[in-house]
Structure formats: C-alpha cells, structure tokens
User: Fold this.
Amino acid sequence: MLIGIYTLTQQRDKFIDEMLAEELRKFDHEVVIRSYIHGARESICYEKPDAVVVPMIGGEYKMDTIKKCREWGVEVIVRRGEAGMGRDQFNDLDDNRKELMLGHWDYGPYVDLELVWGPEFAAVLAQHGHLPAEKIKACGAFAFDPYFVKDLTAHPDRKETILFATGFSTADCLPDYCETGLPEGSSYHEELQKIHADARAAWLKAIHELVRCYKDEWDFELKVRPGETPVVYTDKVPSCVKIHPEGASSSEVLKTIDVLVHSGSTLAIEAHLLNIPAINFCNVNPDPLLSKVSPMVEQYGELEFMLSRLMPGVSNVRQPILDELIDHLYGPIDGKACERAARYIDNHLSGKVSKVNIPTAWPQEAKYFVSGDTLHLEKQEGDFRWSCPCCRVIFWGEQEGTHNCPYCNMKINRTAMKPGEKEPSRKRAVVSSTLG
Ligand SMILES: [Zn+2]
Assistant:
C-alpha cells in the first residue's frame, strides 16, 4: 500500500518519520514523506495514498484534513510527536489542560489508529480520550530512536563546545495571545510569558559572562527550540557564539558538542544517550520529573561552578528520575519505537485492499468565512492580497491585521512594511551570525 507520512516539524519529527518510513518499507509498503503544513493536501490529491500518518489532531485544518481523508477512503493513522503525560500528572490537571492533552477536537470518528509513546498515556487516552483502547498503541519513546543509529563518522579536532539550547518561545508571543483550547482571558499564558522572558534575560547575561571569561577554553553554540526563531538571539549574544539554523535537528547538533545547558528540556535525555553531561539552568519546564533529569541551577555562579566540575564524555543524568520517566511517561527508550509503530501500521493495513477515491484537487470551501468582516474572497477596490501558509489559498483584505484563514481557520498576521524597508530575511541573519 502507499503510505503518506506528513511531518509537522523539521527539527523534531523529520528524522523519526524517516526511520518510520524505513521500517514500513521492510513490510513492502511504498512510503512518501511530505511536509504536513505545506504539502499534505497536495500530496493526498496527487499521490493518492491508501493511508496517511499525521501528527496529533488539534485545530480546524487538521480536523478538515482527516475528515476529507475519511470521506475518500484513506486510512488515518495519528502519530503523537510528544509523550503526553503519566497518570498522576494527568489527574492533577484542571479540565482545560486535560482537554488540551486529550485533544480539544473529537477526532474519534475519523482516526483508525493512534500511535503514542508510553503505555500509561495510552491507558489515559483510552479512558478519557476520543478513541477506544484497541485503536491506541504504545510504541515507546519515538524521540530517542535516532540515538540508537550507529554513527561512525570521526569528528575533527576542535575545542570542547558548550551548547545553549534555549526554550523561551512564549516570551515572543503577542500579549493577547491565548493558546487554542484555553478560555479567552486565561492568565495561564501571561504567567508563562513572564517566566520565559525572565529566564531568557538571565541566560543572555550568563552567555555574555561565560564567553568573556572562558572563550579561550570553550567554544559556544546556541540552538533554539521549535517555536523560537534564531533571529531573536543574533544581535543579543557575542558574535563568536555559533547559532544553528531554525530547522537543525537535535540529534545532529548534539553529535558535535560536549556539554549541554538547557532550561528543562528533553534534550537532556538525548544528551545522556550520547554520554554528554547536561545542566538545567533557570528551569522553565513545569513537569516535576523532566525538570529534574539534569542537575538544576538558578544562579550564574552555580552554573559556572557546575561547568568546571563536569566531565565531557560522561553523562550526569539522574538515573532514578529517568527510570521514573520511562515507567510513567515515555515507555521504553531502546531505539525500537519506529519498528513497533511500523508493525502496528502493517497489522492494521494487512488484508485491506486499496479503495481510495480522491479528487485531483483539494475542494475549496470557505467554511470559516465570516461575512461583515474586512476580509473578502474576491478582490475589491483597495484590497491587499492575503495568502494562507497552510492551505495556500488567496483571499483579500486590509494591508495590516490578524485574521483567521476563511478556508482552514489558521490565524494569520499581515504586517505592512514601511517604505524603503526590506523584508527581514531569517536565513541571511542566521548565516551572518554563524560566520560571525
Ligand atoms: Zn488556510
């Protein structure tokens, strides 16, 4: 059968989706991997897969995509990019957060199989979520599979390198932003924004201080978390700090560094699998276990002291915490999550015959069009062109503003450029800093 895997993020999912594709090919399936946001709809209409593997369902675009797939006879398989939660943690959440975790939209009628990480979260989903237990399969910790692929390339001689892996995306959100699924005006977001902004300020100070004192002993690199852009850091860190481009995969970046400084990230576990010591500096992760996987420090002096005591090449992971995460959250970390996922997919598809009936173009229905708004489907006098990065349709409206796409409901900002101002080029900014 032809299986289309639709990748949500370059950084987090692409390598894992490639591994899953390799495993599926061993069962004689034909597999294509495309971008979920920018290519799924074209791929479905032109390549006509018998089954699709899509990320966690949330939002109208994703719901519309799987509804159409179901209508056209395509098998829909969801692979969750994140681990979810353990039972105790889930029970402690308020109802809004619970709903976000389970999926705010009822995708049950349109999904045939959901692949998750750990068995405990699978049981939580089966009890409270949208699918019955037999459609939910725990496969193990997907994110860590790439670390079990043997890489025998030798690295050239270089100074020992500290990687600063940031995690402060909420600091850059618009002040009135409210996470989809949370009630409007919820203070949760405002609190988080302050935590992220304060932690980023402390990091920038620490980076300057470390570079000033230790640039002869160490090299320094910086990698942003998905959701943050490197541009935020280019003119705020010393020019000798190498900034990785936005889509850089963590497994590739970690292979060339010696010490990781993070703020409560799963990267700590990825580093551990490569025998890289890690420090959690100014933790922003609310998860009580994940935040404690690495030793935690809050002050610059403690960070400096800890760095002087670490041994490159020796992991400093707190094993009892990691064991608890494996038991309650991730499931096995053994490099075989994609292998298990491929087996579940193959079992699900076995004996099925291709029955898809897919049109040659995605139907364009402006089902989220709000009349009376300043937005128009046909150009009117004085209108500016708007285009949706998600479903790629064109519509018309004022020069500057925020609207939901009338076709897929994605929120889009359009800002006017001042005369003579060039559109900022992310790539150029990053490259020049990297060469810096
Ligand atoms: Zn759209």
Summary: The pocket of zinc ion is lined by residues 388, 390-391, 393, 405, 407-408, 410 (CB under 6 Å).
